[in-house]
Amino acid sequence: MSRVSAALDHVRGLVIVLVVAFHSVMAYMASLPVSPPRFDAPPYDWMAHPIIDSDRWLGFDLFGACVFLHLMQLMFFLSGLFAAPALLRKGASPFLRDRILRLGVPFLVGVFVLMPLAYFPAYRVTAVDPSWPAFWSQWTALPFWPSGPIWFLWVVLVLNLAAVGLFHVAPHAIERLARAASHPERFVIGLVIVSALTYLPLAAGFEPWQWAAFGPFQIQPSLAPQYAVYFVAGLAVGAHGLDRGLLGSDAMLEWRWAAWLIGACAAFVMWLVPAALIAKGYETALPGLRIARELALVLFAAAACFAWLAVVLRFARRERRLLGSISENAYGIYLFHYVFLIWTQYALLQFSIPAVAKATIVLGMTLALSWAVSAAVCRVPFGARLLRGERRAALAKERSSAKDLSAQFGLPD
User: Where are the domains of the chain?
Assistant: First the structure.
């Protein structure tokens, strides 16, 4: 495995840990209402915060805002980054079949099996009749089918289908995208400009945390075009080559990691100040606050995404067994974690302990259980095919065989 490939594997693992950490703290934010909302009452706020605990900490609000503003952009960028080499290597038809299988099947299982199990505790918190039949009756009466974090899969699938369509209609389009990524500085500036142009018009009518739902298909209207922009950006970088250009050892990320990190922190403060003033009602007295907030969001999303990549490329270039295992099971952890996470938050409601302790317990339990389930599912060939893909499943099998041989002959791993 190349140096950049190892670093990107570590990014994948760190992103999944960040996803679980973000969801783990959402029950303990200081800004939450005093009591949980009713399950059957619009606007169905329990979708964002399934469990609301009385133990809170303001630091989780800041952490949650920081993660919320850039995490999905980073995930879409990585999705495009990993999709480009696969599309070029396999060709359109095999790639399409693979993506429909690996994204479509888990989406259906996640939405129609895992999400009802995950959201059951959110119903029980305010229910008169806490039984499963009563829950199922209210669940099926909802005007949509909650998909939780699984929404990400259908959007990535649509973007992959669009990439295949582009590859089929204009075979040289991927090459042109790759050429655009050959000039890192101009590429990043272009990404920020296009991201702003796609986000700002919709931000005038929708807040970033507003959702639109059509059955099990949910999306944030204001951020959806920005997600597509980051996916295409990842597609361009991946097509250009993982070991050169933006991600190359002589490029603007690895050796400028401190500048990216400082820039990300500065951009977050640029967002936080107008956001706090708007929350306190100063928007009328200080015109332009909303525009300043939205521009800062665009800058922070880009700076934070590339700061993650820069730091990992600089300091986590060698393979790490723990991060490697998390990365190998990242998809499974993402798919299963919400069930364990919400039930753990629900179980902790009866205990009065500091919010930081509760969030730590939720994070640890959720990671351990979803990791274990993912590893167990991957022991079945079809499960490994779904959650790890052909190449990762083959590599895992080779590593397992090598370990067996090492043990047989008394050799070190």
Answer: 3-374, 378-413
